[in-house]
Amino acid sequence: MVVAEHVDVLPLTFVVHLLAIPAIVLVLVWSIHFRGGLSFNSSNKSLLFNA
After folding, report:
1. Is residue 39 within 8 Å of 31, Cβ to Cβ?
2. Which helix (H) or strand (E) element contains residue 22?
3. Based on the number of CB atoms within 10 Å of its own CB, is 26 exposed (0-12), middle (13-18) or buried (19 or more)?
4. Which of 6, 8, 14, 34 is deepest in the core (most CB within 10 A)?
5. What is the mean pLDDT of residues 12-26?
6. Distance between CA atoms of 4 and 22, rounded to whole angstroms?
């Protein structure tokens, strides 16, 4: 049976967060600029947040 060595996950955590931040920004830019925005109440169903 092979036992895994100790792996430091802190650098991986920073890398994942550094990749997640631009991904969130790009999704917000796409949603707001190219799709016309976000809304909680709207007659346009494509603008509803989390629908």
Report:
1. no
2. helix 10-29
3. exposed
4. 14
5. 96
6. 32
